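Suppose you are handed a protein chain with no further information: no name, no annotation, nothing but its sequence. What can you learn? This example shows the usual starting point.
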Amino acid sequence: MRDLSEIVKAYDIRGVVDEQLDADVVREIGAAFTRLVGGPAVVVGHDMRDSSPGLAAAFAEGITGQGVNVISIGLASTDLLYFASGTLELPGAMFTASHNPAQYNGIKLCRSGAAPVGQDSGLSEIQELVSHGVPEFLGAKGTVSERDMAADYARFLRDLVDLREIRPLKVVVDAGNGMAGHTVPTVFEGLPVELVPMYFELDGTFPNHEANPLDPANLVDLQAKVREVGADAGLAFDGDADRCFVVDENADPVAPSAITALVAARELAKEPGATVIHNLITSHAVPEIVAERGGKPVRTRVGHSFIKQTMAETGAIFGGEHSAHYYFRDFWKADSGMLAALHVLAALGGQAGPLSGLMAEYSRYAASGEINSTVDDQAGRMRAVAETYRDRPGSRIDELDGLTVELSDGSWFNLRPSNTEPLLRLNVEAPDATAVAALRDEVLAVVRG
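A reasonable first move is to predict its three-dimensional structure. Written in structure tokens, the prediction is:
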């Protein structure tokens, strides 16, 4: 009897290789996944970590042992795996631990058409099946075939966002030794873009810096290179290349909320009146701009399962999160950092001004970024903060996801507990930096006691 409770997360499976995740465990997960989704075949891809090819092969054995075929697409970004699942109309599995350190690996699973498999949509059933032992299949085994889908993926993205007529751009891309080093050259081939590559060598030990652009320390090399070569923009991808961060020509980071607003405006220009999803931590500029452009903004909880579910329910054309996950209806409602990057370059190259000037329209407020506090009593600290603001004149409180408080001067904050650590996460937005600092310090004084 296997216990997968330590490695089954909200949206994927992830753990330390050999200690928590090995070939035997993965083989059983593959068999259980096959029992869950059925179908004639499963698409399997993997990232550049040393452990990934072996784990992907063991997973394939679990699938074929259940009489189902495997289509191996080999080295892939997560959104390339989603593309394969969508175009082939097959369930899929991507072996990656995203931005986690080298000793980790994991599996992102999806049903046919890149539909997500999370804790409430299949992972719990897989965990249960493995814990009791997956029934043996007595029929003929499935087969494994290989298929390279990178060129098809690149063509598909370039058809969604046409960059052929943009002005020439110089763009620095930091792949962080992750999968963008594999996909960017193919996607950018033939575009009017002078590509300045950084850390494109696939290396799952991440020798230059962590492949986590959410941490400002991991943007330093990109920022220096943008200044050095006089680039129009810089792009930084995480390890499995499903998230993309942007810096402008001055090497200043562009907030993911501003990217969300920009892409939303571009999509609404194609489909006026459409719905756009944003999670509750994105800037208030996002719903404002969506409404101004004639769209319908819809607010959701944080997390891709909520975004994708709401997109399906509303037929939304696009969705964005503060964490630089961007979801596209025309990409099977899946997230693609590459597709968001192409939108930014198309917008930049379609006008004469610099990226900083272009993004000024979409960057209306000051923000704190996410601030973590270690606390012993998450619920107690949350209650204390709620009581502090409940009776303040003009304040509004909602609890869609954690605690969101909006104040009469236009400032607001969200405080959310971590699901996996004794942390409270605070995000503050206000009309200017001074107001952000004041509200941040006021809330943290209550949170940290």
